[in-house]
C-alpha cells in the first residue's frame, strides 16, 4: 500500500497496467498497491490529465481478478447493504467521511485541481456507488482508512496476499 508521494513509475509497470486494463494506461503517477508478486493492483492517475481535463478518481483497481471479484459483490446487492450501513451507523458514517477527507488529501498532495475540489470517488462521503473505487482506496491506504473498502475487500473472493496473476503482457 502506498499513498503520495509515489515512487517513479517504471515502463514495466505501465506495460503491465495497460495489459491489465486492455488499453494504454495514461497519466499514471504511481502504483498505489501491489499483489504479493509485485504486479500492480491499484494504479494512481493524475488529478489533471495531460489533455487538461480534471480527473477525480485517484485510485483505480486495475488487477483483473480483483476487479472481477468486486464486480461480483456489486452484482449481489452489497452496495445497497453498505449504503444502509453508512446511513444507519454513526461510527461507520464518521469513518467514511474521514476516508473521503483522506482521499482528497492524498490527491491534493499530487496536484490541487479546483474543478474537483471536494469530489472524491465511489460515492464518498455519504453514499456507496462504486466498490471498485472504494476497494482501490482501501488497498492504497491500508486497513483502517476506508471502512466500506475494507469490508468489501474482506468479503471479495480475492486477496492481495494470494497471487492469481498471469503474465499480463504475454501476447502469445
Ligand atoms: Zn500476483
List SSEs in N-to-C order: HEEEHHHHH
Domain module count: 1
Residue stretches low in confidence (pLDDT < 50, at least 5 long) are none
Give a count of the beta strands, DSSP E runs of length 2 or more. 3
Instruction: Give me the secondary-structure category.
Output: mainly alpha
Distance between the termini: 31 Å
What would you report as the Rg, rounded to the nearest angstrom? Answer: 15 Å
Helix content class: 40-55%
Strand portion, in percent? 5-15%
Q: What assembly state would you assign to the polypeptide chains in this entry?
A: single chain
**Order of adjacent strands in the largest pleated sheet:** 1-2-3
Could you describe the largest sheet, including whether it forms a barrel?
3 strands, antiparallel
Question: Given the C-alpha coordinates, what overall shape results?
Answer: globular
What compounds are bound to the protein? zinc ion
Write down the overall mean pLDDT: 96
How many DSSP helices? 6
Task: Explain how this protein is built.
The protein has 172 residues and is mainly alpha-helical. It has one domain (11-155). Helix content is 44%, strand content 9%. The chain contains six helices and three strands; from the N terminus they run αβββααααα. The chain has helices spanning 11-21, 64-75, 78-88, 90-110, 131-141, 147-155; strands at 28-34, 40-45, 59-61. The model has no long low-confidence stretch (mean pLDDT 96). The structure holds zinc ion.
Amino acid at each position: 500500500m502506498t499513498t503520495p508521494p509515489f515512487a517513479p513509475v517504471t515502463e514495466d509497470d505501465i506495460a503491465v497496467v495497460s495489459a491489465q486494463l486492455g488499453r494504454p494506461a495514461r497519466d499514471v503517477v504511481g502504483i498505489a498497491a501491489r499483489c504479493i508478486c509485485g504486479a500492480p493492483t491499484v494504479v494512481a492517475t493524475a488529478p489533471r490529465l495531460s489533455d487538461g481535463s480534471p480527473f477525480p478518481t485517484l485510485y483505480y483497481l486495475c488487477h483483473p481478478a480483483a476487479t472481477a471479484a468486486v464486480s461480483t459483490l456489486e452484482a449481489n446487492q452489497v452496495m445497497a447493504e453498505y449504503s444502509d450501513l453508512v446511513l444507519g451507523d454513526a461510527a461507520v458514517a464518521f469513518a467514511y467521511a474521514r476516508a473521503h477527507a483522506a482521499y482528497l488529501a492524498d490527491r491534493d498532495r499530487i496536484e490541487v485541481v479546483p474543478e474537483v475540489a471536494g469530489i472524491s470517488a465511489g460515492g464518498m462521503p455519504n453514499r456507496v456507488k462504486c466498490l471498485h473505487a472504494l476497494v482501490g482506496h482501501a488497498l492504497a491506504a491500508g486497513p483502517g482508512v476506508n471502512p466500506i473498502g475494507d469490508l468489501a475487500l474482506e468479503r471479495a473472493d480475492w486477496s492481495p496476499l494470494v497471487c492469481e496473476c498471469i503474465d499480463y503482457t504475454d501476447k502469445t
